[in-house]
Fold this sequence. Notes:
By secondary structure, the chain is mainly alpha-helical. 45% of the residues lie in helices and 5% in strands. The chain folds into two domains: 2-64, no CATH class; 90-203, no CATH class.
Amino acid sequence: MDVLFKRHPKEKPTQIPELTKWWNLKGEKIPEFCERLADLKVDVKSDIDTIWEHLPWHHYYEQLLSLPHLAATQLPGVEVNAGLIPPIHPDEVKKALHKMSNKKAIGPDGIPVEAWKCLGPRGLVLLTDFFNCMLFSSKMPKAWRLSTIVPIYKGKGSKYECNNYRGIKLLSHTMKLYERVIDSRIRSECELSKNHYGFVPGLSTTDPMFALNTIVEEYRAKN
């Protein structure tokens, strides 16, 4: 089993999550664990990265996230933007930065939002220039296309089935900050229906659900 772990002097072994779960099972589960290794169809003497590539977690999320993307189409009756987009102002970045919470899990770039907050006015200037560069070039950093997926158990079903876990993607904090700036602009230009409750500050979908449930109960009581 030593081949399943990376061992370095003066360091603790780095365990592979899926194999570690199986290895920590009770004694009666060991035969099932051996059958699982046989299903991997890889040589246990091969490189540890090769073993990881054939683990169920990798294939599960690869299939789940490799869905075909629908091509963007122009909606009928919608006027095309004339391209008169004003540059992003430092005040917009400051407002978005203030809404970002601290002590949140970071993405693959390893840059927390606290780093930008500590830079003060200098950080606002850097972010504003950076965001304007992306806004007018229509390009984004390749690092923003990466994310770290953390599987969270849903609380029901077998803990050894990938379907019973909810994958949480840890994204770049800087990208989230840029998204907040764009989101704020879109909300200022769009008018939402009075019956729209989802993703609206100060509103909750539980209110219309409660109202609908009350109407249904009253209707059933009358009939």
